[in-house]
C-alpha cells in the first residue's frame, strides 16, 4: 500500500510498497480519508532516529472495511470513524498510509454534522486535554445533555489556549464547573472567549501573571499549560493562588524545577499511555495504562453526542490536497510556526 515512512536519516519518504495491516482481535481496519498533523509528528520525523520504512502519523479519519475477532461487523463495517495511533511507535498502528488498524474501542463514530476535515483535528489533542483534566486533576466529564457540572468556585488557568490542545482544555475546564482564565495571542482572544474563557490575556505581556492574579482575585487552583516550555510552566506556577496547598498544573512536556513544590503539583499528561502497551519513547521505557485506555474508550463513546450537540467544538482546519505525498511539505510549514489556532489536515 501507499504510505509515508521514515527514511532512516531523520527524514521521510513516500512508498507504494508498505505492508497493508490486518486487524487483530478487537481491532478495525479502515481506509484512511483524512490525516490530522500534530507537533509530535514533525518533532519525531525530523529529530529522532527511526528505522527506515517505519510508517508515521497519529490522527486520522477512515471508513471501516474489515474487523477483527470480537468486533461487531454490523456496527463498524462501512462506518466513518476517527481516532489516533502512536505513529512511528509501530506497536499499535500508524496513520500516514492508505489503511490503518487500531482497537475498535479507540475510535469514535463521526456524526454527519462534523466534516471529516474537522473530525481529524480532534483525537490526539482532545485525549491529551481529557487525560490531564478529567483523570489527573479529577474534574467531571462533560454531560451528554449539555447541562453544567456543579460550579467549583475555583479558577482554571489555560496557557496557550488557542493551540489545538489548549482549545479542548478551555472547553473541558469550563464544562467541568470551573471559571477559566486563559492566555494566547491577542488575535485569538475572541476564539478563546467563545470556547468558554472569562478572561483572556496576551502571554507576551510582561505583566501577565499579575493581571491573571488581579482578574481572578488570586484564586487560580488548577491549570493546563499547553505550551510547556520552561518559562511558561514557571509563569503558570507563579500565577496560582498564594493560598494554594494542593493545586494541580498539567503540562504536555516534562516539568522543570518547581519553585512552589509545597503548593503546586506539576503533572505531565502523556496520552500515549492510553495504548496500554510497553514501549520505548525517546530513550525511556514507558508502560501503558489500562485505566487510561478505558478512560479514552469511555470518552470516545460519549464524543459523537458532544459533537452533534455542539457541546464540544473541534479545531478549525486547513486542508492540504495532494494525498499522502503532501505530508512532508505540510510538516515543514507546520514546523515553521507560521500558523495559529488551526490544525493542518491532509486529504488523502
UniProtKB/TrEMBL annotation:
Domain Enoyl reductase (ER) positions: 8-274
GO molecular function: oxidoreductase activity, acting on NAD(P)H
Alphabetical list of Pfam families matching this protein: ADH_N, ADH_zinc_N
InterPro entries: ADH-like_C (IPR013149), ADH-like_N (IPR013154), ER (IPR020843), GroES-like_sf (IPR011032), NAD(P)-bd_dom_sf (IPR036291), Trans-enoyl_RdTase-like (IPR047122)
Chain segments annotated as transmembrane: none
Official protein name in the record: Dehydrogenase
Organism expressing this protein natively: Schizosaccharomyces octosporus (strain yFS286)
